[in-house]
């Protein structure tokens, strides 16, 4: 009954208002079924992620294809249903493999949205302590019963003397990524993953971008004038702060933008960036 109503009444109404009304069907529900094509998808994704892990200095799991195949099968059981916003299959897969490879005992997630990546991180690290931070949890579709939730910014939380040197922080919170790097370094974290990192000339294509991004503060050719772009009728301006750029560069040891995987899986492109910070104890 709902589908005819959507097609005949609600869809045309939303179209006249300038919107598209689409079912919230996760993209991973669209998938190959024949064995040969599934094998190609798994093999291709495993290869590209392994290349990125190695370039990032992260030990590549022995059975990469088996790990990707297990995720491909498990993602169908994810309780979060989303078509737009948050991560898709490719981003979720890369985050899963990165977390499994690093095996952190503490995970900090800043920007939870519907709860997809919390579910992914728990699948990757069943025993880890997960701390979830967001400005509001009204959009949650999945709440991890073992995670700790705080409706606040992560930078103001007291981690009670926890050693965060082996922790993993995942930032998908649309907050200045340079600020997040500095905050993480001050707290002793060294393993960071960012979503929505992009270069300055592509930032106009990102919804609600956090800026400056990792790529913007680490670019070889820093802007000599303000960077301006238009998004949904609103003009944004970024003026490079040399002191912030120097502070970030002093902390960063390794950066790796992971492959978007669209070419091998057909799913929406991922935009994950791994950042390793220098050990401040040395």
UniProtKB/TrEMBL annotation:
Gene3D superfamilies: Vaccinia Virus protein VP39. InterPro entries: SAM-dependent_MTases_sf. This is Uncharacterized protein. It comes from Chelatococcus daeguensis.
């Amino acid at each position: 009954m709902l589908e005819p109503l959507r097609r005949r009444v609600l869809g045309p109404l939303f179209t006249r208002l300038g919107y598209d009304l689409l079912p919230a069907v996760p993209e991973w529900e669209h998938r190959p079924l024949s064995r040969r094509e599934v094998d190609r998808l798994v093999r291709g994704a495993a290869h590209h992620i392994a290349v990125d892990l190695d370039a990032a200095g992260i030990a590549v799991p022995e059975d990469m294809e088996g790990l990707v195949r297990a995720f491909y099968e498990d993602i169908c059981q994810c309780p979060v249903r989303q078509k737009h916003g948050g991560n898709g299959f490719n981003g979720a897969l890369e985050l899963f493999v990165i977390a499994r490879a690093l095996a952190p005992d503490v995970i900090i997630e800043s920007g939870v949205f519907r709860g997809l990546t919390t579910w992914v991180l728990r699948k990757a690290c069943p025993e880890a302590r997960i701390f979830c931070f967001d400005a509001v949890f009204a959009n949650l579709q999945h709440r991890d019963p073992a995670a700790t939730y705080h409706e606040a910014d992560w930078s103001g939380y007291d981690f009670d003397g926890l050693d965060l040197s082996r922790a993993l922080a995942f930032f998908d919170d649309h907050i200045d990524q340079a600020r997040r790097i500095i905050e993480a370094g001050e707290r002793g974290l060294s393993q960071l993953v960012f979503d929505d990192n992009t270069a300055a000339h592509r930032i106009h294509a990102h919804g609600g971008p956090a800026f400056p991004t990792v790529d913007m503060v680490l670019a070889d050719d820093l802007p000599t004038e303000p960077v301006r772009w238009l998004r949904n009728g609103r003009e944004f301006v970024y003026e490079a702060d040399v002191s912030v750029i120097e502070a970030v560069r002093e902390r960063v040891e390794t950066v790796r933008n992971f492959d978007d995987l669209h070419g091998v899986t057909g799913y929406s492109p991922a935009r994950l960036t791994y950042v390793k910070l220098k050990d401040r104890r040395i």
